[in-house]
Design goal:
8 strands; 112 residues; globular; 4 helices; alpha/beta; two-stranded parallel ribbon
Length: 112
């Protein structure tokens, strides 16, 4: 997604790093290697598997995640990489709101 003022948001990464890279290459110009907000909707492989290699190609300015419970190997790997790369990370719950540039974002799930 792109906000009206040009901030870029990526929601999940799918299960396949190669497919994620190919899709981003198709949608994002080669000179633009930034993601302003990365959203990890929940810690399952089919949503997080593609994300760890993303940080090799893109500058991720911040990340949010829905919950920690129930995560498999991809969730553990993802959080380790986020911590090592010092990407600001925030766990969010339903009702949390924040702004990214001109966009107002509200978390709808999960309940606290």
């Amino acid at each position: 997604m792109e906000t009206p003022d040009g901030r870029q948001i990526l929601i999940d990464g799918g299960p396949d790093p190669a497919r994620l890279s190919a899709e981003l290459d198709r949608l994002v110009p080669a000179w633009d290697r930034r993601i302003d907000l990365l959203v990890a909707s929940h810690p399952h492989e089919d949503h997080l598997g593609g994300l760890p290699r993303l940080l090799d190609r893109y500058q991720v300015r911040s990340a949010i995640g829905a919950e920690e419970r129930g995560g498999g190997p991809a969730a553990a790997t993802w959080r380790t990489i986020v911590d090592e790369r010092r990407v600001p990370y925030r766990t969010v719950h339903a009702g949390d709101t924040f702004r990214l540039g001109g966009a107002h974002l509200e978390v709808l799930w999960p309940d606290a």
